[in-house]
Known about the structure:
heterodimer; A: four-stranded antiparallel beta sheet; B: mainly alpha
Amino acid sequence: MASDWAIETHNLGRIYTIRNRRERKIRKEIVALRDVNLQIPRGELFGLLGPNGAGKTTLIKILTTLLAPTTGWAKVAGFDVVREPQKIRPRINMVSGGEASGYGLLTVRENLWMFAQFYGLSSREANRRIEEMLRRIGLADRIHTKSSDLSTGLRQKMNIVRGFLTDPEILFLDEPTLGLDVNAARDVRRFIREWLDAHPDRTILLTTHYMVEADELCDRVAIISQGRVLACDSPEALKRRLQREALFDIEITTPNGLTAAALEAIPGVRKALLTESNGIARLNLVLAEDSVLPSVIQVLTEREIGVRHLTKREPTLEDVFVELVGRPLTESEEQAREMNES
Amino acid sequence: MSPEPDLLRTPVPKASGWRLFLKTVVARAYPRVIGQQRERSWIFFDVFLSILAVSAYVFVYRAIGAPEEYVGFVIVGGAMTAFWLNVLWSMSSQLYWEKESGNLALYIMAPNSMMAILLGMAIGGIIATSLRAVAILAVGSLIFHVQYTVGSIPALVAVFLLTLAALYGLGMMTASLFLLWGREAWHLANLAQEPIYLLSGFYFPVKNLGFWVAAVASIIPLTLGLDAMRQLLFPSGAALGFLSVPVEIALLAILTFIFLVAAWWLLRYMERIAIREGRLLEYRR
């Protein structure tokens, strides 16, 4: 069944139920996803941006037929994930960041060949594609290395090749550059982009909590927090939301009891964020317009706070995230972790 | 990087149906057949240590003046121990390890049949373990001068193959069970290892345990398999046998059928639970 949408979800939700093992009573319910509505056309590189615990991996599991939703429905390549998983599976693949799939005793080539067989590729075709893809991702010299001897970065490159090897119509990349160094992450991003250029009809859903990655790669981005999609648009359009506002980064001498709330009380200050690291205090401000800045400086002066450095800058996806979620991504991750632990 | 778009742009032909099933079986058997031979330490751990364990029983039997056939019984039992350990640690526990490494999610997500994955694991395990069993049998027979008198080669081959089919069928069945029981997989395997040495009569004729204990122990296919093989390999085997060889062959065939059907049903059940609850597919990363 052909569908205009590679991925489509309607009011998709997932609640995890944690039961008391002995009494079989429900101990806790965790809402991982709620009312997610997405329509992703074929040929798009779609990003899901959010902190750990936001629901990104849950959504990917549902779309890859590994988890059933508790409400709503989802279709992948036009097929329902619950009723028609067998029609979806030949058309998709998935790579997760930091995964340890495959077998350490097998070489890179052997591991990749094995996974290619599970999708029905002929050995000749599989080996041809393995060599070519390893060359492109910069792993050709390790083709005969046992995967247990690979570093984290090289192993992840192997995993990336595993995902692309089977020529999926729709590929799910769950934090593909997690834990990679700058060079390895750049190689992976370049490989993804190159593959999509060669396959304009293929679709990638990528989850990340690296703003730069989403900005650089994605045609559209959905910002997700606590299981809800808060915004969904192209990175440019998302940033344009803030372009009417003025963004300033100010490095100050010492906060002297200053709080973000005190700054947000100033008329025209839309958002204020105060951070301290390595003894340096920074203010990130979203102002209604440039003319609000003198009022901020006045408050700083009244509190005998010196300004070391002041920059006006263009909005980033991080700013969009802060605007939508109300806190930066790192804080959101801490909050999600605390919620999961409680 | 020099882009060569031709290769990546070419549509990839993919097999489906029984050809995909066969490909999956072969691919999943590969790590066991090839990969497991790469660590040469298996010669020490799987053969030398097994010979040591067997030797202890041989010396005890010789010290108490047991019939010389008992030495042969022990050697055959020692060789078959390799299959029991393989089933326990590399079949029953395997889906649990696959889950922990993240492979299980990839297996379920792929278009292949999970039955093909289990069958590949079993066939790979049989081939790799046969190498170890043959080594134990050859070295043990050589050291302790064991004489074999094969009554019927076709019957012996049939018993051996049916024993392995039923045993690995049991392993395929328990793979899903161990996964459903979760973290206890390690403990379950430990718990099952030693008692089965006793109940299945690895080092003595199972008839000595009495009819009812031997009958209950027969749910482990090695009990009947070992008993039938000893009857076919040694002149006094029939006198020490639990049931007649044809009956044991028939029972092994029934066990094979039951275990394979149960394995298929439990796999589907495990997959349903995994997808419904989510917890069975969580892995460390």
